[in-house]
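Hey, sorry to bother you again with one of my protein questions. A protein chain has come my way and I'm curious about its shape. It would help a lot if you went through both lines with me. I owe you a coffee for this, so here goes:
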Amino acid sequence: MDTLRRSLSRWKRYHIKVHLADEDLMMPLTVKPRDTVMDLRAYLVREGVTSWKKTFYYNSRQLEEHETLKEANIQNGSVLLLVSNK
């Protein structure tokens, strides 16, 4: 049963939103729990949003580049904040 649960988690998808603070825009994304912040940046670049000199925050906590969404306790429906570094 545990093996089945682990194999099904590979297919799990989260529908999250990224709030682009500088542009006052909410960008919906479909991601996997094992995706990292670097993967989120790549998704945004594909959507035409540059995110390289910006920082992701979730629940008032800065996210690290190699941290997975699961490690950060990000779940389906979560909203992340993307803010320019100053």
About this structure: The chain has a mean pLDDT of 89. The chain has one domain: 11-84. The first helix runs from residue 2 to 9.
